[in-house]
From TrEMBL:
<protein>
    <submittedName>
        <fullName>Uncharacterized protein</fullName>
    </submittedName>
</protein>
Length: 152
């Protein structure tokens, strides 16, 4: 018997980011792809849980997600800060839409509805180990609930 796979904060965040203007599922993940040439033209967003909470009486999730916008120009030592900043700003702009968002989650036994989203603070430069990578970080709050997948 295959175990049931619940919707996770990471899966919901990846799906929410992928539906924003100018972004796609290929540009979002939990880890940065090893081969920079596969994402250098578009940039890449990584997501990780940084905090948050859950309503104890029912499943209403409210994670604070660490979202990082990565950009690079392979073969140079010039980090493309504008591209990384634009990725972070695109996430921030996506929070200005106030209507709930239904998200189909691949690989999960549930879908989700994001009720509200907002950014805590401002996008900020973050520095990594790679001299030619530009990174902008922001803290994203997504209030979401799981919804059952319809069965045929």
């Amino acid at each position: 018997m295959t175990p049931f796979i619940y919707a996770s904060d990471e899966a919901v965040t990846r799906a929410w980011l992928a539906q924003l203007d100018g972004l796609s599922a290929a540009m979002v993940g939990e880890v940065l792809p090893r081969e920079a040439s596969s994402w250098a033209a578009t940039g890449f967003l990584t997501v990780a849980v940084a905090g948050g909470g859950t309503v104890p009486e029912y499943r209403f999730e409210s994670p604070v997600m660490d979202v990082r916008g990565w950009a690079t120009t392979p073969g140079t030592d010039a980090p493309p800060w504008n591209m990384a900043r634009n990725l972070a700003t695109s996430v921030q702009a996506g929070t200005y839409r106030r209507e709930p968002r239904f998200l189909e989650l691949a690989g999960c036994g549930e879908n989700a509805v994001v009720k509200t989203a907002w950014v805590l603070g401002k996008p900020r430069r973050a520095y990594g180990d790679f001299g030619d990578y530009a990174v902008y970080a922001l803290d994203l709050v997504l209030n979401w609930v799981p919804v059952a997948k319809s069965t045929p």
